[in-house]
Amino acid sequence: RCGRCRAPPRLSPQRLRAAVHYTVGSLCQDVAEDKEVQFSKQTVAAIAEATFRQCANTGKYIKGCFLILCRHAKRSTITTEDVKLLARRSNSLLKYITQKSEELASSNMELKEKKRKKSSASKGGRMPGEQEATVTENEDSNMA
Predict the structure, then answer these.
(1) What is the dihedral of CA 122, 127, 128, 129, to 10 degrees?
(2) From CA 63, how far away is CA 139, in angstroms rounded?
(3) Beta-carbon neighbour count of residue 20 at 10 Å?
(4) Residues in CB range of 55: below 8 A, 6 or more apart
């Protein structure tokens, strides 16, 4: 991952093409075993190339859509809502993205809470509830 933005490392087109070819080959092999057929090396290569080109074209299309959305909203940051907007035509994809988004938000909230508790404890400070209890005890002793 990138140290500055935590993005995954960028793969070269050759490595991506090789990864697609490997994956297509594995899938063809699975289908061949299940259906008792065989795929020639040329067929696997043609499927892999078509898949790679389709993914590249889809990626360019999605990038363009995001740029249009951001310009329209007069901002430069792509949000989760932008991704959901583009995925709205596929119910299963929208459901998956929404679920993952909620999981990430929940995980981020838990991490923030842990950091807040840890920093509060390391500073020797009390938790908000503990301070209130102390104040209440002092008030009770003053009333007596």
Answers:
(1) -170
(2) 62
(3) 20
(4) 20
Element (H, E) at 89: none
DSSP code for 11: P
pLDDT tens-digit series, residues 33-48: 999 999 999 999 999 9
Residue 88 contacts residue 94 (beta carbons within 8 Å): yes
DSSP 8-state code for residue 102:
H
Distances from the Cα of 113 to the Cα of 2, 42, 81, 126, 131, angstroms:
25, 55, 24, 15, 18
Q: pLDDT tens digits for 61-77?
A: 888 888 888 888 888 88
Residue 48's closest CA among 31, 28, 69, 64?
28
Q: What is the pTM of this model?
A: 0.55
The amino acid sitting at 13 is: P
Above pLDDT 90, what percent of the chain?
Answer: 42
Q: How far apart are CA 24 and CA 116, in angstroms?
A: 46
Q: Which residue has the tokens 């981020």?
A: 108
The DSSP code for 5 is T
